[in-house]
Write a structure and sequence with these properties.
With 258 residues, the chain is mainly α. It is 52% helix and 2% strand. The protein is built from 10 helices and 2 strands; from the N terminus they run H-H-H-H-H-H-H-H-H-H-E-E. Strands 1-2 form a two-stranded antiparallel sheet. Helix 1 crosses helix 7 and helix 7 packs across helix 8. The chain is elongated.
Length: 258
């Protein structure tokens, strides 16, 4: 059984990737034979190896093609949607049950722990996902959605930990209430947003809720030790905190993540 008549090389490759994703997700990396994947795709072992050099290469290629793609689909549907909203939508679905392809990442991660041939391409795959997330974080910082003082690399790593960990802690192991999870995510996003002004809200009647400042532009200080009097120091010339800008050269263009 060689190449199927009337089927292009690209179509054969896609057949193999689809068959591999289903087999690895269902039977695991160690429980899946190359011959099983070739048979499911309707090609010979030789045809499979013409496209992929090893079972490990095929595993990671299947993960790229048929692994989690929700972020890419949401982004393609609405490229101008705030990035924090996109990430929040994905975050809300993390505790829910996944389809078979959603567990492909679990098999790849487990295999990477045992087999260096899998670990090498998996490091590349995880690094690519981290880089794309970090790019989205930088774009969100440039748009004022996220605090510019945050490390894009650290935040992207945090997102990866949540996403990949959710594939391991499934609802049948430990469920969580959807409303409580959504409320927690909202608090997290608020904490990552640019810091708000520290000014107190207006007091009833339009005031600031603070004692009026002296007419000479100085601010009163509490009495010093033992002097029994209040001294005055110059009032601050600017806001209490200046927002830190993102490092130069880190601006990311909005491109559809994979």
């Amino acid at each position: 059984m060689g190449r199927i008549a009337g089927v292009t090389a690209a179509e054969t490759r896609e057949r193999l990737l689809r068959a591999a994703a289903e087999a690895f997700a269902r039977r695991g990396y160690d429980g899946t034979r190359v011959a099983d994947i070739a048979a499911a795709a309707g090609v010979s072992n030789g045809a499979l190896y013409a496209h992929f050099g090893s079972k490990a290469e095929l595993l990671v290629a299947a993960l790229r093609a048929h692994g989690p793609q929700l972020l890419a689909r949401l982004f393609a549907a609405d490229p101008d949607r705030p990035i924090t909203e996109l990430l929040t939508v994905i975050g809300r679905g993390l505790p829910r049950r996944r389809d078979a392809h959603g567990y492909l990442i679990v098999e790849a991660l487990v295999a990477a722990r045992r087999d260096e041939d899998v670990a090498r391409p998996m490091r590349d795959y995880v690094g690519e996902r981290a880089d794309r997330l970090a790019g989205l974080v930088r774009t969100a910082q440039d748009d004022g959605e996220l605090d510019g003082a945050l490390s894009p690399d650290a935040l992207s790593h945090f997102c990866l930990l949540l996403a990949m960990g959710s594939a391991l802690v499934t609802p049948d192991l430990h469920p969580v209430d959807d409303g409580e999870w959504a409320a927690l995510l909202a608090r997290v996003v608020a904490a990552l947003s640019p810091a708000e002004s520290t000014e107190r809200p207006p007091a009833p009647g339009g005031g600031t809720g603070r004692p009026p400042a002296p007419a000479d532009g100085t601010a009163e200080r509490a009495p010093g030790p033992g002097d029994g009097t209040a001294t005055r120091t110059p009032a601050p010339a600017g806001p209490a905190r200046a927002r830190t800008s993102a490092p130069a050269g880190t601006t990311a263009q909005r491109g559809a993540p994979q």
